[in-house]
Design brief:
Helix content is about 10%, strand content about 35%. The protein is mainly beta. The protein folds into two domains: about 80 residues, no CATH class; about 60 residues, no CATH class. A ten-stranded antiparallel beta sheet has the order 1-4-5-8-9-12-13-16-17-18, with no helix packed on it. Strands 2-3 form a two-stranded antiparallel ribbon.
């Protein structure tokens, strides 16, 4: 199978698996900003789990989300139990020592996701430019490509204790070639 066909097949399987495990949600239009479960949701659509538990909304001010503060206009997404899941940042923003990529010309909902563990600790960030993370020269992934998949993905990933787990390196480092993924043990 050609590499591009394999990538599309894997994406299809991943999306099918992801969508099959979701709890049914419904949306409601907020005519005025509303404080919902401690989050300041702006006007527009908000999504809810059964029982009126918030699933996602666009925040209208800087908001504490897990251990990070996310900028206004970001879309926060929660697990059914109300714990942080991920956020679409409205623009590039510093989160827990990293400058994470946000926004998109189509809006934040079409940009990169910044993921969190249910504890609120940062799990995954797509870097906004090459930067040093915990002494490691990590690379901005610059979007999806066959090379990104071949090298394990472009996101910078953290263990729940905050230690860097892996990232593609921005320059040759400890025998790892530029663009390849460095993986550290816990």
């Amino acid at each position: 199978m050609r590499k591009d066909m394999l990538i599309l097949a894997l994406l299809g399987l991943g999306c099918a698996g992801w969508s099959g495990t979701q709890t049914k949600t419904y949306r409601k239009k907020l005519e005025i900003p509303a404080e919902i479960q401690g989050y300041s949701c702006g006007t527009g659509y908000a999504w809810f789990y059964p029982g009126a538990r918030l699933e996602r909304c666009t925040v209208n001010r800087e908001t504490a989300f897990g251990e990070a503060n996310v900028p206004p206009g970001s879309i926060i997404v929660l697990h059914a139990d109300g714990k942080p899941k991920f956020v679409y940042l409205s623009h590039d923003a510093p989160l827990v020592g990293c400058q994470c990529r946000g926004g998109s010309w189509l809006g934040p909902g079409e940009g990169d996701t910044t993921a969190f563990y249910p504890s609120g600790k940062l799990k995954q960030c797509w870097l906004a430019g090459d930067q040093e993370v915990q002494g490691i020269p990590c690379r901005d992934a610059g979007g999806f490509s066959a090379a990104v998949f071949h090298h394990g993905g472009g996101a910078t990933i953290f263990y729940e204790n905050g230690k860097l787990q892996s990232c593609p390196v921005s320059k040759d480092f400890l025998g790892i070639k530029r663009g390849e993924r460095l993986v550290q043990g816990l």
